[in-house]
Design goal:
By secondary structure, this protein is mainly alpha-helical. 80% of the residues lie in helices and 0% in strands. It contains 16 helices and no strands.
């Protein structure tokens, strides 16, 4: 699936826009925007948990499982957005994004239509998977209801993500944040209205109510996002570069489809390394499942910090790669410390805040001690996780999709998941199942760093 870089993407602009040049100010601006956007996006799932927490641990466990499986599908679909963002960033690096965007967006919509249709078919077998792994029937039923409604909103989620990414890449960070704040606020408002308020149309099933609230919020916000983006580009973006050959729709769509398959598969494998262990944990007692759901949500919220900085590095590498590969190498060397230090500091802060977060996300019935143990099992993966994903960003920019997907597939399904199975079926240990993801990160960090070194990027060194 490795993609040859098109010659149409190589010319460098005579002068780069200020927001495409790496500096502490531009990095903090972009990473801060991505952190806010990702935190609010992850917060939508946390809001759903918080609204159903008063209904008891069973509801928390079911929503946690359903939201995690939804994230598994969205991890794959996010591969489309990542490839879209890389191509747009490379064009923006040479001041050519406004000319490429219409074709790029058309290709995105075509690819998204194919993968969305496939995703809707695959969701039909999820209840069978719950049965195979032996999930608690009551928990599995709640998770299936939640997943069914959330998957309906996939097209709107992808549309919103594409608009938000476009605004960030072209330097409109504030507008990107406003969009995600809007969906966050609308989600909370519709949750309140549908679960407790005047629109309480599904009083017997708050799970369906919170899922419907999320979809409605995404639909309304995606519509607003398209209006903002249309107005932005209708005003023009200043001086244009000289005319260059533009890729045609069909080859561009084919390239995006194949590359997004590899990138999306790698991201889905990463989530599978968390989702499958959690599904296995759902065989245990409800208290353990609820604690695992809360710990997983805490880990997901923590990941907003490294993912924001890593995504920012990916965009800046994309900008610089649009100008030259040598410039990209220099950007990677200068930006490593911007990822490492925030990630470790945030991990320490999250570990200290677990008692408070456990009560907020899980209610009074959750076992705080067990939540802390399971959160610690997630956090041991942080060093390898950072290296793995930094290398992954670079390989995505370089469009080496097979270098990403093949190792992650092997590690996930031949090493990580078997460890999780042993942890549950042999030792009845949720901690072993959760910690299996750390094994995946370590192995993939080693493999990906070897690959990036082949391309001339030095990842491991002094920070």
């Amino acid at each position: 699936m490795s993609q040859r870089i098109s010659s149409t993407e190589e010319p460098a602009a005579s002068s780069a826009a200020a927001h495409t040049i790496l500096s502490p100010r531009t990095f903090v601006s972009l990473a801060g925007t991505m952190f806010a956007v990702d935190l609010l996006s992850a917060g939508n799932g946390a809001i759903d948990l918080a609204f159903v927490a008063p209904f008891g641990a069973l509801m928390v466990a079911g929503i946690g499982l359903g939201d995690l499986v939804t994230a598994l599908f969205m991890a794959f679909f996010a591969g489309i957005i990542d490839v879209f963002a890389v191509k747009l960033a490379r064009a923006e690096g040479r001041n050519d994004a406004s000319r490429l965007l219409p074709k790029l967006f058309t290709a995105l919509l075509l690819v998204a239509a194919v993968w969305t249709a496939a995703g809707m078919v695959v969701t039909r077998v999820v209840p069978l998977i719950f049965d195979v792994v032996g999930s608690e029937p009551a928990v599995a039923a709640i998770a299936s209801d939640y997943l069914t409604v959330r998957m309906i909103g996939i097209p709107f989620t992808l549309a919103l993500a594409a608009v938000s990414v476009t605004l960030r890449v072209v330097g409109r960070q504030r507008a990107s944040i406003v969009l995600i704040v809007t969906v966050f606020v609308l989600n909370a408002a519709f949750n309140a209205a549908l679960v407790y308020g005047p629109l309480k149309v599904v009083a017997a099933n708050p799970v369906i109510a919170v899922a419907i609230a999320t979809v409605i919020a995404q639909v309304l916000t995606a519509a607003c996002g398209f209006v903002v983006l249309a107005r932005h580009f209708s005003r023009g973006r200043g001086e244009r570069v000289a005319e260059t050959d533009q890729p045609r729709i069909i080859p561009l769509t084919r390239e995006m489809f194949v590359t997004s398959l590899g990138v999306g598969l790698r991201q889905m494998n990463n989530y599978a390394a968390a989702v499958v262990p959690f599904m296995l944990i759902s065989r245990l007692d409800v208290a353990t499942v609820a604690a695992a759901a809360v710990a997983t949500r805490i880990w997901t919220l923590y990941c907003r910090v490294p993912q924001a900085t890593l995504s920012a590095v990916g965009v800046f590498v994309g900008y610089s790669r649009g100008r030259s590969q040598q410039d990209a190498h220099a950007v990677v060397q200068r930006s490593r410390k911007y990822v490492v230090w925030p990630s470790f500091i945030a991990a320490a802060g999250v570990a200290a805040a677990v008692p408070v977060l456990a009560k907020v996300l899980g209610g009074d019935e959750v076992d705080v001690g067990l939540v802390w143990i399971l959160t610690a099992a997630y956090l041991i993966a942080v060093p390898a996780y950072v290296i793995e994903n930094l290398c992954g960003e670079i390989l995505t920019v370089e469009q080496r999709s097979s270098w990403l997907s093949l190792p992650s597939t092997v590690v996930t399904y031949l090493i990580t998941i078997p460890i999780a199975i042993l942890g549950i079926l042999v030792w009845q240990s949720a901690m072993v199942a959760v910690a299996s993801a750390a094994v995946a990160s370590l192995l993939l960090a080693l493999r990906y760093s070897m690959r990036t070194r082949q391309l001339g990027y030095r990842i491991i060194g002094r920070f």
